[in-house]
Design brief:
It is a multi-pass membrane protein. One of its GO terms (molecular function) is phosphorelay sensor kinase activity. Pfam families: HATPase_c, HisKA. It catalyses: ATP + protein L-histidine = ADP + protein N-phospho-L-histidine. The protein has 24 helices and 12 strands. The protein is an alpha+beta fold. Among the domains are: about 120 residues, no CATH class; about 90 residues, no CATH class; about 150 residues, Histidine kinase-like ATPase, C-terminal domain (Heat Shock Protein 90, 2-Layer Sandwich). Strands 1, 2, 3, 4 and 5 form a 5-stranded antiparallel β-sheet that branches. Helix 13 packs antiparallel against helix 14.
Length: about 725
């Protein structure tokens, strides 16, 4: 299989007509001969003498000017001064006045010589001539080396005479038996060559530009290729090997093609039952085409290199290693290419729905991602412009549409441009107009619903246009009204509960006071009963006083009228004092207190009395509502730049309330209100924490009740 492609590229690489004729009629020989005639002029025919070239050197005023610019007088003077100054400084340190004076005199003399030399035109001209003569010597040396290589590289013999000077140059014997011969004369045309070669180095620019040398010289004579030198000429032998290999490759390619057609005709199942066939069928159509094109490209790439290498018939070891790699790789690629070609042909014959496969292909997915989506983004970017700007552009498009329509009737040649503009600009603009009108109608309907209090589903937000922003604001208005209604309903419910709770909690001690007051009016009471009734009256009066004071305090905090007396307080010591005060109360309630506090002080800028009230309320709340025989966990720690105070306990009562409502006034976990308390403890704590810029959160997990208080620490 490899030989088929290699043969094809061998035909392209070297055409049959190239190898069907003699080497001396090939393009390769023409190139070699032209290179030889171009080189022989400056290398041998010119027969340059260094003395003659040096004699023709011309020094122009511009050369002197450029030399002075290149050799900066001040720079050389400064360099000389720097050199002598070190020596003079050393003589001064050694207090050697004689050496010092001698060095200073020598320095001034050399500086004077530099000024005189560079200002003297004769001196500068001599320096320039010396540089050019050096360049000429280098050029002549290069010519001699090139002449030796020329005779070794090319087998030509020649005898050529300068038409102008009559000088003849001969190399070899032109009377030998010639495999190739070319004569130059007045009738057949002279050999034209140049005597100077600018490619020999930068000596051309620096040494010969001002010389009076003819740009081109004409020669007559004969150039031959002796037959006896053909066996030694590498280019000729390479051509013969390449021609032989060319015909061998063509024959192998034809034979391989015949074998391949035979296999495809009589052994088609080899392709159909291949192990890769089923996996190939699962690929999308665009992937199959891409794989096929990529494989063919690699086949062509490898075959070009292989054919060039094989046709060259080089015996270089590196070429052998290259073929050892390229031939198996080319065979594998051609095999895969043939398999894919056969499979693609079979699928086309099966009549599959190529349109459906193409729509679901990876290419179409990429098309939608890279083309369609950016177009949509462009439309959205246009939509984000101010509405006045959008209207102006759309009106301009419609106006130009009308102008184009009229121009088509007057200038029919513009019909094609007009149609393209209609499909690319006009129709999309028309679509945008109707799309915006439809969207605007939706917004008008949604606004009417909000006005009547109908809160249906939110308006669909599409894109980033001004209408989309309006839809977003309408949805926010709907959500705000919905939340407001919920809050209003909640407020009404809490207000009713507040009135009920306040009346209950205030009426209970007040009823007791009235009852026991009436009992005290009985003149037949014993002193012991009278004393007991007075104690009850005192206790209920104190409770009523506490309820009223707490109610006023939480109201004052909620209104923001409470003034704080802030100072730096150690929260750790404050907590330890509060816990110590309630230790006995915890023990009576059969509760085990587990405390975790930091070893270092936690300083916060707070009102000490009010913060004590927070700690007191939370600890008292835990002692009242924690289940007997359980543990109450109290911790204080530093978290970042805040202090975090946590109280955790297992609730005595079932916590059915929303955690957020437990901080409402008169809310109590004891729904039957059998325990003492006003139901204001958490509300008061929440208000104090808020006034300090802190945060108080309640978490309920089954019967686990947890209060987390955070307050900023001082820096």
């Amino acid at each position: 299989m490899n030989s088929i492609i290699i043969a094809s590229f061998s035909v392209l690489h070297g055409s049959p007509s190239e190898y069907a004729q003699s080497y001396f009629k090939s393009d390769q020989f023409d190139f070699d001969y032209e290179e030889f005639t171009r080189e022989i002029g400056p290398v041998e025919l010119a027969n340059w003498s260094a003395d003659e070239l040096k004699r023709d050197i011309v020094i122009e005023p511009q050369d002197i000017k450029e030399y002075r610019e290149q050799h900066d007088v001040m720079a050389e003077i400064q360099s000389t001064q720097k050199q002598y100054n070190r020596e003079i400084e050393r003589a001064i340190q050694n207090k050697d006045e004689i050496t010092k004076q001698a060095l200073m005199s020598e320095r001034e003399r050399k500086i004077g010589d530099i000024r005189n030399d560079l200002m003297d035109d004769k001196y500068v001209a001599s320096q320039i001539r010396a540089e050019k003569e050096k360049k000429i010597d280098i050029y002549i040396s290069n010519l001699n080396q090139r002449l030796n290589r020329l005779h070794d590289e090319y087998p030509y013999s020649y005898e050529l005479t300068n038409i102008k000077t009559g000088k003849t140059v001969q190399y070899g014997n032109i009377n030998d038996q010639a495999a190739y011969k070319k004569a130059y004369s007045k009738d057949k045309g002279y050999l034209t060559t140049q005597l100077l070669n600018s490619s020999m180095g930068d000596e051309w620019d620096k040494g010969f530009k001002q010389m009076n040398i003819d740009p081109a010289v004409f020669y007559k004579g004969t150039i031959i290729v002796p037959e006896k030198k053909l066996s030694e000429w590498q280019n000729y032998q390479d051509f013969q090997r390449q021609r032989t290999s060319f015909y061998v490759i063509i024959a192998c390619g034809i034979l391989s093609l015949v074998c391949l057609l035979f296999v495809y005709k009589f052994r088609k199942e080899w392709f159909q039952n291949h192990i890769l066939h089923q996996a190939y069928r699962r690929l999308s159509i665009d992937i199959k085409l891409a794989l096929w094109i990529f494989t063919i490209f690699l086949v062509l790439l490898v075959s070009v290199g292989t054919s060039s290498t094989v046709v060259s018939m080089s015996t270089n070891f590196n070429i052998f290693i290259e073929l050892l790699f390229l031939l198996p790789l080319g065979t594998l690629l051609i095999y895969l290419g043939i398999l894919q070609t056969v499979w693609l042909i079979e699928e086309l014959k099966e009549g599959k729905n190529l349109r459906e496969e193409w729509d679901t292909s990876a290419f179409m997915s990429a098309w939608r991602l890279l083309i369609v989506k950016p177009f949509q983004m462009l439309r959205e970017a246009f939509s984000d412009s101010p509405i006045a700007f959008q209207v102006a552009i759309i009106l301009f498009v419609l106006f130009m549409w009308g102008v184009g329509t009229s121009l088509v009737f007057t200038i029919p040649e513009m019909a094609l441009v007009y149609i393209i503009c209609v499909f690319m600009i006009g129709l999309p603009a028309l679509f945008i107009i109707f799309y915006r009108i439809r969207y605007l109608n939706k917004l008008i309907v949604a606004t009417s619903q909000i006005a009547t209090g109908t809160l249906n589903d939110p308006v669909e937000v599409k894109g980033n246009s001004i209408f989309a922003k309006q839809a977003t604001m309408l949805n926010q208005m709907k959500e705000g009204i919905h939340v407001s209604k919920k809050e209003q309903a909640k407020s009404e419910r809490l207000k009713t509960e507040l009135i009920t709770n306040v009346s209950h909690d205030l009426r209970t001690p007040l009823t007791s006071i009235i009852t026991y007051t009436d009992l005290l009016k009985n003149p037949d009471l014993t002193e012991e009963d009278r004393h007991h009734y007075v104690e009850v009256l005192d206790r209920k009066s104190q409770r009523l006083k506490t309820l009223i004071e707490d109610l006023f305090e939480v109201s004052k905090m909620a209104s923001g009228n409470l003034e704080l007396q802030k100072q730096r307080i150690d929260l750790t010591k404050l907590l330890q004092q509060a816990l110590a005060e309630h230790q006995e109360q915890m023990e009576k309630a059969s509760l085990s207190l587990k405390v975790t506090t930091p070893t270092e002080p936690l300083l916060a800028y707070v009102d000490g009395q009010k913060w004590w009230r927070v700690l007191d309320n939370l600890i008292v709340n835990a002692s009242k509502y924690a289940l007997e025989g359980t543990r109450v966990y109290v911790s204080l720690k530093k978290v970042g730049d805040v202090a975090e105070f946590v109280v955790k306990n297992v609730a005595k009562y079932e916590l059915n309330e929303d955690a957020a409502e437990l901080v409402e006034r008169f809310k109590r976990a004891d729904a039957s209100r059998n325990t003492e308390g006003s139901g204001l403890g958490l509300a008061i704590a929440q208000s104090i924490v808020d006034l300090h810029g802190g945060e108080m959160n309640i978490e309920i997990d089954g019967d686990l009740f947890k209060v987390i208080v955070k307050v900023p620490l001082t820096i």
